[in-house]
């Protein structure tokens, strides 16, 4: 297997930029959640500032940016949110 498919759930600013709540990505084997965030931010420069403060979820557990994904995983990008 040279590629894996993962579902990326988008919240807050990520969701606003893409105009949708989730994206299916096909990625090279060994791709990390941090690299997925890089890919998501690339077409939207305004998201770059969020990369340093985004938390990552993988299959309902928080993980660090260096965690690799596997076929069928669900990745969640959670930027800081403000509200009132």
UniProtKB/TrEMBL annotation:
One of its GO terms (biological process) is Mo-molybdopterin cofactor biosynthetic process. GO terms for cellular component: molybdopterin adenylyltransferase complex. It comes from the Bacteria. InterPro entries: Beta-grasp_dom_sf, MoaD_arc-typ, MOCS2A, Mopterin_synth/thiamin_S_b, ThiS/MoaD-like. Keywords: Nucleotide-binding. Pfam families: ThiS. Gene3D superfamilies: 3.10.20.30. GO terms for molecular function: nucleotide binding. Belongs to the MoaD family. This is Molybdopterin synthase sulfur carrier subunit. It comes from Acaryochloris thomasi RCC1774. The lineage of its organism: Bacteria, Bacillati, Cyanobacteriota, Cyanophyceae, Acaryochloridales.
